[in-house]
Amino acid sequence: MPSAPGGATLRSSWVREIRAIWLKDLRQEWRLRQGIVASLLMGVATVVGVGFASLGQTLSAGLQAGLFWVAVLFGMFPALARGFIVEEETGTADLLRVAARPASVFWGKWLFHATLYLLLSGALVPLYALLVAPLSGHLGGWLLLWLGGGFCLTSVLTLCGAFVAQTAVRGALLAGLTFPMLLPLILILIAGSRQAIEGVFPAEPLQGVFGYALALSAGGAWVFEKVWQE
Amino acid sequence: MQQWTLECRRLGKRFGERWVFRGLELQIPTGTVLIVRGANGSGKSTLIKLVAGLLAPTEGAIQLWHNGSPVPDRTRLLGWCAADGALYRELTGYEHLRWWAQARGLPDAPDALMAHLDRFELAHRAHDWVRAYSTGMRQRLRMAIATYGDPPLLLLDEPDAGLDPSGLKLLRQVLDEQTRCGIALFATNRAECAGWGDLALELGA
Q: In whole angstroms, what is the distance from residue B34 CA to residue A141 CA?
């Protein structure tokens, strides 16, 4: 295995590379708080708006589930799609390309976005429960939908962010690209959440969500590699 | 001593209908600094980016050899420094180098990182955000990142831009050290740097 006396080597750890990218993004976000503030404002505005609109009404299980995932999606969108766009806009994408292998870049960014998802939804879910409707029914089902849905949302938005970062018409393309990829997922998540609210374990929707997650984790890094390099 | 050879075979790059260069043949052994010269738009940065793996060749191939065997992924063994290469404005110089070391599987002990920054006269500002650095300091940081771990292939794309005389002296030292164990490609149009290499490639000629 070729290596230089100073340490330059082909033998580096995937975990170390991914961790380095994740920590770099966390540090930058902590210092700027651009993505998380934009997302939090969007998410809180959505939940408060929905809560105000539904004040004093008893929402059906389907409506509760739909509003929940719309609020989550609106809240996540600004932060999760920005990762690669910011790298391209600030010109640091080339440094990142040279620093780490494409799969490490993808999973490093994914991990950063997943962290944002956990933090943001950790704030939005209690707010939703307080202002709109409590998350009742099958809590185990809710938890699995939240985790599986988060995995898929994070993967789709990370991948789409990488696609559109290479183009000139980022905003329009991001919406156009994510819509067909997210719509089936959101519909499955809504169906699952409705079952969970009704106290039924959402077995079939969860199969769909985790199948989608499996397909994304298997194909996402591969597709990303083709997009990331010219 | 390890023997490295950088080989470009019939290398060509086209943007749209325009060929930047075509049919480029190079074989650069260990201990060589190749000076890449040429007018603006002649393809100096394009050649450096092709070797760095940042662009894909339209035709031809690039291969790094180690003791006669092909290296499967040369991009893991190179240092890249470009005058227009952006840095993360909200990270410090030290954090940049540590990030690079971790992503590259290089030693990331604080003492080693600070010693390397000190070599580029950045130790006293190591914990300042890069946004507070001058143009010359940013250039020194790019060089520090590119040379950390003594990569056998060093790609310098007009690293002399924005450097003061002491920065240029440092750049000369970097090139001298690179000739002991590796290869350097140095794109420049500065007349005083023309004699710093062993070979010269004039693009657009």
A: 63
Q: State the Cα angle at B20 between B14 and B25, rounded to 5°.
A: 95
CA distance A162 to chain B (A): 16
Cα distances from B20 to residues A134, A144, B59, in angstroms, run 63, 54, 12
Grouping H, G, I as helix, E, B as strand and the rest as coil, residue B28 is strand
Q: How many CB pairs under 8 A join A and B?
A: 118
> Does pLDDT of A180 surpass 90?
no
**Measuring CA to CA, which residue among B130, B106, B129 is closest to residue B116?**
B106
Q: Closest chain B residue to A15 measured between Cα atoms?
A: B103
Mean pLDDT of chain B: 94
ipTM reported for the complex, 2 dp: 0.93
pLDDT-derived band at B205, boundaries 50, 70, 90: low
Contact between B47 and B35 (Cβ < 8 Å): no
Instruction: Report the candidate in B24, B48, B18, B51 with the shortest Cα–Cα distance to residue B36.
Output: B48
**pLDDT tens by residue, B134-152:** 999 999 999 999 999 999 9
